[in-house]
Amino acid sequence: MISQENYPSKVLKDAVEAISSLPGVGSRSALRLALHLLRQPAEKIHHFASSIDRLAEDVHYCRTCMMVSDGDECAICADQRRDHKTICVVESVRDVMSIEATGQYRGVYHVLGGIISPIGGVGPSDLTIRQLVDRVSADVEVILALSGDVEGETTSFYIYRQIEGSGCKVTTLARGLGFGDELEYADSLTLGRSIANRQVFKP
Amino acid sequence: MISQENYPSKVLKDAVEAISSLPGVGSRSALRLALHLLRQPAEKIHHFASSIDRLAEDVHYCRTCMMVSDGDECAICADQRRDHKTICVVESVRDVMSIEATGQYRGVYHVLGGIISPIGGVGPSDLTIRQLVDRVSADVEVILALSGDVEGETTSFYIYRQIEGSGCKVTTLARGLGFGDELEYADSLTLGRSIANRQVFKP
User: Fold this and answer.
1) How many domains does chain B fold into?
2) A148 occurs within a structural domain
3) Distance CA A96, CA B8 (A)
4) What is the pLDDT of residues B10-34, one digit of tens each?
């Protein structure tokens, strides 16, 4: 309905194009967001733009776990009360935040920065697997907390082969029906594995 | 699931907060978008931020119709092939773009910059109604192309009272069933008005 030619302003068009480059934002939504910003006071627009701009240089990565951080060491790795002998391997920053939000985990992390994906052109050398191997020793437990799809399983297996020689303990997340899930809505793969990996009932 | 406290970086948190200030963007989507930007090369982030930043100062408004423009006069008002005696009054820039996209209109526009909304705290003086009154004379047709809800009708009526003394012709958009609409899915108000305002059948 709104074509590229009838943008009334080059500046507006540039902003819409930038916003619509974000994943999941179409050109109509981008226009709506750009016009929303345009109605804001100038200082609010500047603040918005500079908040984004600072992502380019002011975000650092923890030298140990590769987590996003404001300095060279993240708050989790710097925390001596945490268990530095348990390393949870995750794909992304978002996974760390999800696990932290559970409040159930007191170990540290290792952020791979992606997952091995031949189709996506991501190989082991694009991830922080070498840094993980350097961290691992015989007295460490490595929890492979990657997604349960083919790429996640492939990455888990690749990492396992890289670290098994160190004598460390390697574990993975429990998989099965979610708490509160109903059997009739579960997919058959999950249900089948939940039966195969059944646990002792603890009343 | 992801709380405010466990953001791993102040810079990331600021960016997420800025993005989630946009309408319809929740904090989870904002985090996803911020992490997407974070993975981009620095120059792409700078380009994105500066595209937004330029909205603050580099967008101008046409002195005649109040449309977004790169200069003091928009391309439509500057176009002498258009009919400057027909003024289509719309709420926003987006409406102009929607009407332009139809390719059916050869007149000019007047952008109100909003709609009278007592609940939203928008009164007639917040809109460009005074500038419209200054543009109108007896040989002009004013098309009130505002939305069909209570606020749109109120605004249309207010504008009509302001300009009727000039002797101009005042029209409004045709309302009725959409082309291709099925009767059984039409709301009763639209259907009722479509019957009341029935038109001569032109085979």
Assistant:
1) 2
2) yes
3) 9
4) 899 999 999 999 999 998 899 999 9
Interface of A with B in 43-82 (CB under 8 A): 43, 45-60, 67-70, 74-76
ipTM surpassing 0.85: no
- In this prediction the pTM is 0.76
Cβ neighbours, 10 Å, residue B155: 25
Looking at chain A from residue 119 to 178, which residues have their Cβ under 8 Å from any Cβ of chain B? none
- What is the spatial distance between Cα B156 and Cα B153, in angstroms, rounded to a whole number? 5
Q: Does residue B168 contact residue B140 with C-beta atoms inside 8 Å?
A: yes
Closest Cα of chain A to B91: distance in Å?
A: 13
Look at residues B179, B120, B180, B110 and name the one whose alpha carbon lies nearest to residue B146. B110
| A64 in a structural domain | no
* Domain boundaries, position B88: 73-200
Which residue is listed with tokens 């580099």?
Answer: B58
Indicate the length of chain A as a whole number.
203
The most distant pair of C-alpha atoms in chain A lies apart, rounded to whole Å, by 68
Phi, psi of B188 (to 5 degrees): -70, -30
The verdict on B39 and B80 lying in the same domain is no
Q: pLDDT tens-digit profile of A173-190?
A: 888 888 778 878 888 888
Burial state string for B25-59 with b = 16 or more CB within 10 A and e = fewer than 16: beeebbbbbbbebbeeeeeebbbbbebbbbbbeeb
User: In the structure, how many helices (H) and strands (E) does chain A have?
Assistant: 8, 6
